[in-house]
Design brief:
This protein is an alpha+beta fold. The protein folds into 3 domains: 111 residues, no CATH class; 62 residues, Helix Hairpins, CATH 1.10.287; 140 residues, Histidine kinase-like ATPase, C-terminal domain (Heat Shock Protein 90). Strands 2-4-5-7-6 form a 5-stranded mixed beta sheet, with helices on one face. The chain has a two-stranded antiparallel ribbon with strand order 1-3.
Length: 351
């Protein structure tokens, strides 16, 4: 559309200008005008392409011939000249300029296409490098984090197997069994996070969407911890229901509570609530504050702000998986600092 408007403007302006020139000069000068005017006019029109250049040529030919006929026999020489070299020069110039412009446009489009291909190749290379780095970090992290609890589990299991009744009290046995159960639960959590992270990476993760009682999911999660750990957790608020996947909600809550137990302070609060068509769960602790620049980075895979030399049961995927699951179910997970408390806020669609 824009090219058509410019072509029309070129035809109109060049035609009017040429008519005025032909009317004001003497017959003896019109031949020179015809020779000199055609080429610059067609160069200007040719910039808009072959079609526009030919359109200008046809318009000028028609108008010039009409003026020559009106002017009478004194214009025969001009007419003869006009029908020869100027017209041929005009048409050839229009074709050449039009073709040049088409070639230039094609070259620009090809250069732009190659630039886009180069950008896409660089992005692909960067993604591949990131994936390789992620895999290396995963292997190193999993190798350490799985070995630590497995060593403890195998050690206590061997003691239970070989221990004599006289050397080990019932309380000792119960304590060892509880320890093995806790370590097994942590190992199960690691494997769950690894599976979810892998499925998220290839876009194969799915979640159901059913009415879900959130407090009931929290109760199931807390049952897996010992009474001493559960005593640190204060639960408040109502009992909202969300449209969510119960198993995924439990995994999010497990990861958030585990994070608070490892890195938070002594007090942990979990509050339920609702705002409009959204329900929320806030997991708060009085641990050290994070710099605001880290509020989003903590959700990156394998990222750890807390420089702990050894934290069994953690591969740096808990918060990444929790946010991914929340968004998969139509909600979100965010972090902020409120007063003396670190707050992880999970939102989900209300049932």
């Amino acid at each position: 559309m824009r090219g058509s408007r410019w072509a029309g403007a070129a035809v109109a302006s060049t035609t009017v200008g040429y008519v005025v020139v032909l009317m004001v000069v003497t017959p003896s000068e019109q031949t020179s005008v015809a020779l000199l005017a055609f080429i610059p006019l067609v160069l200007a029109a040719g910039l808009f392409g072959l079609r526009a250049g030919l359109a200008v040529a046809v318009g000028l030919v028609a108008v010039t011939m009409a003026i020559i006929e009106v002017s009478g026999p004194g214009m025969d020489a001009v007419l003869a000249t006009y029908r020869g070299i100027p017209l041929l020069a005009f048409v050839v110039t229009a074709i050449v300029v039009g073709r040049f412009r088409d070639l230039s446009t094609a070259m620009e489009e090809e250069l732009e296409r190659r630039r886009q291909v180069e950008i896409e190749l660089r992005q692909t290379q960067r993604r591949l490098e990131e994936m390789i780095q992620s895999k290396d970090e995963l292997i190193a992290s999993v190798g350490h984090e799985l070995r630590t609890p497995l060593t403890a589990v195998l050690g206590f299991a061997e003691m239970l197997k070989l221990g004599n009744e006289g050397e080990m009290t019932r309380a000792d046995r119960v304590e060892m069994v509880d320890f093995i159960a806790r370590e097994a639960f942590d190992l199960s959590g690691i494997i769950d996070d690894l599976l979810v992270a892998a499925r998220m990476e290839i876009g194969k993760l799915e979640a159901s969407a059913v009415p879900t009682a959130l407090r009931a999911q929290l109760s199931q999660v807390l049952e897996t911890w010992d009474p001493g750990t559960v005593s640190r957790v204060t639960v408040m608020g109502g009992d909202p229901k969300a449209i969510a996947d119960p198993a995924r909600v439990r995994q999010i809550l497990r990861n958030l509570i585990t994070n608070a137990l490892r890195y938070g302070g002594s007090a942990i609060e979990i509050e339920f609530g609702a705002e409009g068509r959204t329900v929320f769960i806030e997991v708060r602790d009085d641990g050290p504050a994070l710099p605001e620049a880290e509020w989003e980075r903590i959700f990156d895979a394998y990222y750890r702000y807390h420089a702990e030399p050894s934290q069994p049961g953690s591969v740096g995927l808990g918060l990444t998986v929790a946010r991914g699951l929340a968004r998969l179910m139509g909600g979100d997970l965010s972090y902020r600092r409120r007063g003396e408390m670190s707050v992880f806020a999970l939102t989900l669609p209300a049932a």
